[in-house]
Amino acid sequence: MHLTLHADYSLRVLLYLATRTGRPVSTQEMADAYGISKHHLVRVVQTLAGQGVVDARAGRSGGVVLARAPADIQVGSVLRAAEPDFHLVECFDRERNACPIAPACGLKGVLDEAREAFLAVLDRYTLADLLRRSRPNLQDYFLPTSEP
Length: 148
Fold this sequence. Notes:
Blueprint: H1 5-19, H2 27-34, H3 38-50, E1 54-57, E2 63-66, H4 75-82, H5 107-123, H6 127-133
Protein name: Rrf2 family protein
Keywords: DNA-binding
GO molecular function: DNA binding; DNA-binding transcription factor activity
């Protein structure tokens, strides 16, 4: 299984914001801190804002902040919102499934069970749990930025 960059960046944005409490953070600052595309991060922030996980305000005094406490942000929910689908194999996609053995194959059920187990594990963790599992100096690992 491979998560999309959108899902990966969603979790990275949340970790960054959780280490920068007390002030709005620009998407440019986060892009610089990770060495990734600002344009992609804008879409990620839109997804997270739509989910009610972050607040994003435009303008000179704007920026992005967590909309909820880290303990109230569930990792599994974030990934479900950020991933376009969790189609592990072709037969998971009913519209594009061209596998000739799909009606008789037992693989889909096993993979579906594995996918659900994967998401169940992620549902047990919050952003606060990720912070507790990280090194205390996590913020020191971000690339230097021009922002404070």
